[in-house]
Amino acid sequence: MIRACFVLVGTILATLVFGSWVLLAALFSVRDRVGSPYDLAPRLWARCILWMSGVTLVQHGVEHKTGDRHIFAVNHVANYDVLAIAATLRWIKFVAKVELFKIPLFGKAMLAAGMIPIERANRKAAFGSYSLATKRIQAGASVAVYPEGTRGNAYPLRSFKKGPFVLAIQSQAPIVPVVVHGQLEVNPKGKFLVRPGVIHVHFLPPIESAGMTYEDRDRLADATHEAMRECLRAEYGVASLPARASAGEP
Predict the structure, then answer these.
(1) Is the entire prediction scored with pTM above 0.70?
(2) Domains (ranges, CATH) in the chain?
(3) For every residue of 37-88, which 3-state class applies, written as one string?
(4) What mean pLDDT comes out for the span 157-169?
(5) pLDDT at 247
(6) What angle (nearest 5°) sits at the alpha carbon of residue 177, between those of residues 173 and 178?
(7) How far apart are CA 225 and CA 231, in angstroms?
């Protein structure tokens, strides 16, 4: 509980510092690129919170995360898997639920940094968000998506939404499947608790979308799901159901 309070206060302070940096950069029309505040601030913000939490990150398959214009498809079971990705990837834009953008300062800083709000309940708006993500990729950035949609409460992989794979095909960007493990031990869902620990981030071989069409979206989703499912099984003995794309695309 004491550590959780320390992390909460530290997170607020880090958000004030790095959020203000991003907003100032936007005010002075600083260009969004590698090494800009929009690239550095999210990474440093996440690393500060992980440090305060006593978390050590261990990366696997780092050769698969190099380069620009990738889509990183990540499993989602806790807030700390978002921090792990933000801390390890350069010039990354997150597709995140629209509610986060309503948080004072934090939300404005996210928008200024080029993060992409998505309203999954609104199909038309959701696809508008993916069109914006395509523009970010075309500008040279990479995008992080959470194809399971909302957070789960256990490590087994759930079914995927189709929207992230439509995005990959639309932008012709390779998908890098990413498995994060250890975050539930650090910060269990629904509990005001933070424990020191180790979070592992597995970057798996990219899956090319070049040449694919809209009709290939299920095949791309299944291949990504299978790669992540096999990693969880082989590395941690976590059994997941086979791929089953969700009926709702966003």
Answers:
(1) yes
(2) 2-236 (3.40.1130.10)
(3) HHHHHHHHHHHHHHHHHCEEEEEECHHHCCCCCCEEEECCCCHHHHHHHHHH
(4) 92
(5) 46
(6) 130
(7) 10
Q: Do the strands 92-97 and 197-203 form a parallel or antiparallel pair, or are they unpaired?
A: unpaired
The Cα 179–Cα 228 span in angstroms is 6
Q: Phi first, then psi: what are they for 90, rounded to 5°? A: -90, 150
Tokens standing for residue 214: 């809209």
Q: How does pLDDT run across 140-159, given as a tens digit for each residue? A: 999 999 999 888 889 999 99
DSSP string, the chain: -HHHHHHHHHHHHHHHHHHHHHHHHHHTT---STTSHHHHHHHHHHHHHHHHHTEEEEEE-GGGS-SSS-EEEE--SSHHHHHHHHHH-SSEEEEEEGGGGGSTTHHHHHHHTT-EEE-TT-HHHHHHHHHHHHHHHHTT-EEEE-TT-S--SSSS--PPPSHHHHHHHHHTPPEEEEEEESHHHHS-TT------EEEEEEEPPPB--TT--GGGHHHHHHHHHHHHHHHHHHHH----PPP---SS--
Distances 187 to 22, 228, 232 between C-alpha atoms, Å: 27, 22, 19
For residue 39 the two structure tokens come to 């690239």
Distance CA 222, CA 169 (A): 14
User: Both ends of the chain: CA-CA distance in Å?
Assistant: 36
Taking residue 229's Cβ as centre, other Cβ atoms within 10 Å add up to 21
Q: How many residues are there in the chain?
A: 250
Mind listing the pLDDT tens digit for each residue in 56-111?
A: 999 999 999 988 899 999 999 989 999 999 999 999 999 988 899 999 999 999 99
